[in-house]
Each structure stands twice: as C-alpha cells, then as structure tokens.
Amino acid sequence: MIRIRFERGRQTTLKIIGMHCATCTLAVQKALLSVPGVLHAEASLAGDEAKVVADPTRLRYGDLLRAVRKAGYDIYREEAHIVLKAVRPEEVSRIAELLSGWGVFDVRPNPAAGVVTVEYNPLEVTPGELARKLEEAGYEVAEVKTGEVDIDVDRRVVELDRADLRRRLAVAAGPTAALVALMVASMAGLHAAVYWLQWALATPVQFYSGWRFIKGAYRAFRNKTANMDTLVTLGTLSTYFYSVYSLLTGGLVYFEASAAVITLVLLGRYIEAGMRIKTGEAVRRLLTLQPEKARVLENGAEVEVPAAQVKPGQLVAVKQGERAPVDGVVEEGFGYVDESAFTGEPMPVEKKKGDLILAGSILVRGYLVVRATRSGRHTLLAQMVKLVRQAQGARLPVQQLVDKISGVFTWAVIAVASAVFVLWYLTTGDINRALIFTASVLVVACPCALGLATPLSVVVGVGRAAEKGVLIKRPEALQKLREARYVAFDKTGTLTLGRPRVVAVWGGDEVLNLAASLEQKSEHPLAAAVVEYARERNLKLSEPEFFDSIPGAGVYGRINGVAVAVGNEKILRGMGAELPPEVAKWAEEMREQGYTVVYVATEGKTLGAIAVGDQIREGAWEAVHWLKTRGVEPVIVTGDHEKSARAVAKKLGISVVYSGVDPEEKAKIVEALKSRGLVVFVGDGVNDAAALATADVGIAVGTGTDVAKEAGDTILLRGDITKVVEVFKISEKIMRNVKFNLFWAFVYNIALIPLAAGVFYPVTLRPELAGLAMAFSSISVTLNALRLRGA
C-alpha cells in the first residue's frame, strides 16, 4: 500500500468494520473529522477502509478508534503481547510513553504480570518494531506474542522472575549469613583478616545477586528517570565501596549491611512474586473450564476431536456431569445446566431444543446434542478471558497522580539522603554514621508499595468481578462511578427482557406476512417476535430481494417487487404514507396498555400495524430502587413511543423519560445530562452504541449486540439488570482497596524515613532492617489486594 506524505500532515489507512451503505461511510468520515489533529478524512465502502491525513504533533492515534466506536463502527486492529523481564510498576508510564505513537491505538502495561499489551494498526506498525523500541530503551524483551495470549503467560512470566530471584538469593544467602557472623567476630577484636574475608564474601552478593538492581538503575538512568533500583543501587554501592576504601585505609567496614540489604530485598521480591501468581487465579480458573476435547457426532458415531477444531454446524454430544466444549444451540435432548461461570448464579438453568448453551457450562442432569456455533478462542468464555486480561492491564485515573508523585518521590528521596549525609557528617564528623543513615534512607523509601497499590487491586478485583458475571473492560470507569448522578437506561432489551411477543395485529395475516418476511433479516428483538408469531400461524414467508435497516426508525426492503417498510412514525414519513385515523386510534389504545406498536407500509400507503408486548426484567425494580436510595436518579432514554415507555417507567418508579429518540438523539440527551452530573448509560443494542460511548460510564447488557458490548466500559453477562448494582458495589470495593494500599504506602514512607534518617537517634534503623521493612510494605500491599478475591 502506497503511503503519501502531505505537506501539512501524515496519512494513515484504517480498515473499518461495520460499514454497509453510503450513509455509513459518511458517518465514519464525520466521526474521524471530529478528532483533533485530523486534516482530511474519507471513507470507502468498496475497500472497507478510511484514509486519514493528520498532524502527527496534534493527533492522539487512539482518538481515531474512540471516535469510530462512538459512531457505532469499529477499526480492525491486532494485538501484540510483549513479555518483559522484571518490569517495575514505577516504569509503566515510561513504557507507555515509548510505545504510544503513530499506528498504536492503546498500550496496557501490566506490571503484575510483566506483560505489555499493545493494540496497533498492522498497516502502520509491526510487533517487532514495538519490541525494538523497548530494547533500545534498555528493557529486556523475553517474548513477543501476537493474537491470543495463552492461559499461563502471566504465571510463566512471574515464575521466570522467581527463578532468577531464587538463583540470586541462593548465591546471596550463605555469604550474607557468614558476613553477619563475621561482623560479630570482628566486634570481638578479630579485625584485619576478618575484613578481607568479608570483602571476598560481599563481592559476589553485590555484583551477582545485586546485578538486577544495578541493571535496573542503569536503565532508569538511560531513560532520565529514577526508580526503586536506583535507590537500592545507590544505598548498597555507596556502602560497599566505602567499605572497600575503609579496608584499604584501616577504617571500619560495613560489607554485611550492603549484602543484607540485597538479600532481604531479594527475599521480599521472591515472596511478593509468589503472592502475585495468586492474583491471576480468576483468569486461569475461567479458561480451565473449557474442555480440551469434544465428542463430535459423525454418521451416528461419536468421534473425539480437539474442542478448538470443532467447526460451526457440527453436532457435539454433552453427557451428564460434563462441561460443554463449544458454544452452540441445543439440537436434541433436555437437561439442566450450571452457568455460574458466566452469571455468578449457582441455580441450574433448564435447556431444551433451540436454547443456547455456552462452552464451560456444566450439564448437571440430562443429555444434550449441541449444534456448534463457536469453538476455541471464539467462544464467549475465551472472549471473557481476553477482556479480563485487557482490563487487568488498565490503569485507574488515580494512577496518573501516583505516577507523578513516584516520579518526583525518588528524586526527593535522593535529595533527602544527600542532606542526611551532609548534616550528620557536619554535625558529628562521623562519616560512618552519616553513611549508615544515608543508606537506610535510600533503601527504606523505595516506592515499590506505591507502584503496586493500584494495579494489584485492579487485577484481583477485575478477576473477581468476572466470576460474578460482570466483565469490566475499562477499569478507569470504576473510579467515576462514585460520582454518578444519573443512570440512563434503554428500555427494550435492557429494562425489559427484549424477547417480546405479538399481542395483536391490525390488518390481518397479509400485514403480518409482509412484516415477518422483511423482519426475518433483522436482529432486533421486536423483529424476532413478529417472525416467531408468523411462523406459529404457519404463514409462508417470502425472501426479501433487498433489505436495509435504518437505526431509530425501522427496516426497509423489497418483497415480490414491492417496497415495504416496518417501523415507527419516522418510517411512515420516509415512505410518504399517511396514518389512517382508525390505525392511529388502535395504536394509541395498544400503547396505553404498555405495548409497542410498529407500522407496516408500502410507498404512499399504511397497510396496518402490529402491537408487541415485552416483560420487565426480573430484578429491574430492585435495581432502580437501590440506585434511588444512593441518590442516583434513574432515567429512561428509548426510541420507543412515549406511552409505551411511560407505562414501563411507572411500574419501575422512574419519573424522567425521553422517548421516540434516534441513536444520535440518545447521545445528545446523554451529553445534556452530563452538564448536570456524571452519567452512566445502560443499553444493549446498536441504537445504544453512541450513547454508551458518550456516557461517562457505559454498561452494556451482555445479551445485546457485539457493537454495544464494544462501546460499553462494562458488560453484564446474561442480561441480568441487577448486575448494575453489582458494578457499583464492586467498584466501591476496588476503590476502597486502592485507597487503603495508597494510604499504607504513603504513611509507611512518612513514618520510616525520619527513623532511617536518625531523627530519633539513638533509636535507629540499620540498612538491612530498612531493606526488610521495605520488602514488608510490598508484601502487605499484595496481601491486601488479595482480600478482593473474597469480595
């Protein structure tokens, strides 16, 4: 593909997903032109792509993706998982900065797993180029994986780190123990020979066991930053080299102090790494639910094959006590299935012919033959794991403040340590005492706990939420929920079941037949109800010669050479059809009973109407009531008719209703509500994609369309509206956990730095004890984050 460089900008090509008409290309083009820095944009339906010319100095590449999603479409992108050796939390901002740029939509470093996930445009950049950027900055890239990251990558990364820590700890432990013993011996007067032996013992500890700190400090120096490795390296090297100098000049040595610091910090890191493996257990539990083998029925016999190789349409047998190996539809049999892995609810669900079954669910009782629809990495279970992994690498907005503090904090500690050395030396003339206090300050103030406070809580909390049937795609939304003023609900498929039934038809079977023939091409819940009712009446449906959907209005097509439209009043206006008074009166009566009415028209004429009823979801009233007790105002924003919407609102106790609005108007209403306070939008359909993206927090109902799920910050699996409450509760628990971790990290440093600096002399904190205390702070933060597993 040819790249053209314009005088004022740079060109990029985007593959667009979801365009199907000229209107779509205009919508995508308009969305791209709204992005700051874009100079020119044009979309092509023929190539399913858009060409954009932008000012690289002003454009944030990820804004292109967000704009297209907001318009209800998507951009094709690929993922690379870059596995790094020994990445620290305080280095996350630098890694994100290095990788962000032209061709990169999103960067998600996960210090808890040691993996950096990058979403990129394969037409602009390659994984190899991304990895080289990190290597040039001094980071060690252990592995680069594209596509799906395997189940145990986080465990493998941590285990590799633990193996390195174990080797270095094994080298350090013996000499350090001997150094402490020799220190005691030196106090008994065994000076010269003991000091030389101490030097011999301390050197491998300093330059082999401590090499990972020296290497990390050098990398930070190259990147013009300072981190925990900088502090440990400064503290131990200064003590080590001063001891060498003292040994050669006849002074006191402190080899045991530098060796003990390295050993204890390594020990703390080793324990912490072991605990961090547990933070990813939720993801591993999810993926192990999917069986590796499936029994495919071929010519009446069962043939065992790898589950990932099952093709759509093949029949798979599932026996009592087994887990379903694929997603599919029950073709034969009857049984009760445990779907708690997806819904968090332990009660088995009845399954019969025509019902959906998901890979990983357990057939508690019965026998089923399932016609596969998705297998392997395409199943809902695999997609859940992918989303959870992505979310676990996300960073809360509070982390930006923490990053800024950490960036300044390390330099501040170095300044404080320098001041401590100067003050103690000037006031006492004792360089030994000044050095010990300086080393203690450097070691005790390492910002490890500060860097781990937020990411570990997110990793554990997001995993726990997934086990409860709530997929948190963008954890940054969790921090916003505490300030929610409004929760705006779509009606059909969100507050209601979205599985309506036809209750009446004006115009007889002829109207029903035309409507069902056209609606069989639509995925809307109302369309499904019309088609199902027509089939129950044994009507023979025709195949549309042409079909298109008009969001917020209805569907349009041609049947047997006649143009037909089904939808609301907007579709009638589009067809130039008058609404007869008798049909209008009938429709009004239906709406007063809470039913939705769709009209059937040809060019210039309204043929009839169909009334469809829907049931309010179980738990909807309780969810709305809970929100109101929290001071959050529930609102309905729907494309449905006002009377139908108000009938549902009355039953749920909702007073504010916006009805008869199209997708663009939904987004505008959300935007208007945002001027009065933070807005959460809950929806399930294509019509809701723009509103979900516009809201401060978007919650997509899991039984809805893929576009809506993509636009949402959070997904409620199985469409359980009570999970909205769960989202609020989980966010509170995660944020409380984060706050406690941050409070502990800050208070710990504030309390121990003065002690290490000798402010309370003669009560002091030697460097080795400072190293132990520093390790304990990181372990404490990790233990607190693990408490979320039981939330």
Summed over residues and divided by their number, the pLDDT gives a mean of 82
Tell me which oligomeric state these chains represent. single chain
Helical stretch count? 28
Strand count: 28
Percent of residues in beta strands: 15-25%
Report on the biggest sheet.
Answer: 7 strands, antiparallel
Low-pLDDT stretches are: 1-6
Structural class: alpha+beta
Distance between the termini: 51 Å
- The figure for the number of domains is 6
Rg from alpha-carbon coordinates:
32 Å
Helix content percent band = 40-55%
Cα shape: elongated
Organism: Pyrobaculum islandicum (strain DSM 4184 / JCM 9189 / GEO3)
Subcellular location: Endomembrane system
Family: Belongs to the cation transport ATPase (P-type) (TC 3.A.3) family. Type IB subfamily.
GO biological process, one term: copper ion homeostasis
Structural overview:
By secondary structure, this protein is of the alpha+beta class. The chain has six domains: 10-72, Alpha-Beta Plaits (2-Layer Sandwich); 78-147, Alpha-Beta Plaits; 156-281 and 390-459 and 734-790, no CATH class; 298-378, Calcium-transporting ATPase, cytoplasmic transduction domain A (Distorted Sandwich), CATH 2.70.150; 470-496 and 616-719, 3-Layer(aba) Sandwich (Rossmann fold), CATH 3.40.50.1000; 501-613, Calcium-transporting ATPase, cytoplasmic domain N (3-Layer(aba) Sandwich), CATH 3.40.1110. Helix content is 50%, strand content 21%. Strands 9, 10, 11, 12, 13, 14 and 15 form a seven-stranded antiparallel β-sheet that branches. It has a seven-stranded mixed β-sheet with strand order 16-28-27-26-17-24-25, with helices on both faces. Strand 6 and strand 7 form a beta hairpin. Helix 7 crosses helix 8 (228-249). The radius of gyration is 32 Å and the shape is elongated. Residues 1-6 have low confidence and may be disordered.
